[in-house]
Design brief:
about 110 residues, rod-shaped, 2 helices, mainly alpha
Length: about 110
């Protein structure tokens, strides 16, 4: 095999899908834990004008961050499913190609 050739293995692709899914699960747990910890602080900034300003800013920024991380998780879930689909499709095409070549070989032998 030349250095520029690519070797594809459906098992490795499926394994990668599982690895991505593992990252999704771990990141999801970490995200839930971080949200719970932030919520446990309650109104940590106080009720005066400065506290309300800081608390409101903190709420907006943290909500934006959690929304972005949730979106990232959704994207990773999609990528994991796509990798699994690629592995399934590749394996099916590989099997169909082998069957076709076997059938052609049998047809040639019959002639």
């Amino acid at each position: 095999m030349a250095a520029d050739d690519v070797e594809v293995d459906a098992g490795h692709i499926r394994s990668s899908a599982g690895d991505v899914d593992g990252v999704v699960q771990k990141l999801g747990r970490e995200l839930k834990a971080a949200k719970a910890e932030l919520e446990s602080f309650g109104d940590a900034f106080g009720g005066d004008d400065l506290g309300l300003l800081m608390g409101g800013t903190h709420e907006v920024v943290s909500q934006f961050a959690f929304d972005q991380l949730s979106s990232l998780l959704e994207g990773l879930v999609s990528q994991s499913k796509a990798l699994d689909h690629v592995a399934t499709t590749y394996r099916g095409n590989e099997d169909a190609g082998a069957q076709l070549l076997g059938d052609l070989g049998n047809d040639v032998e019959a002639v």
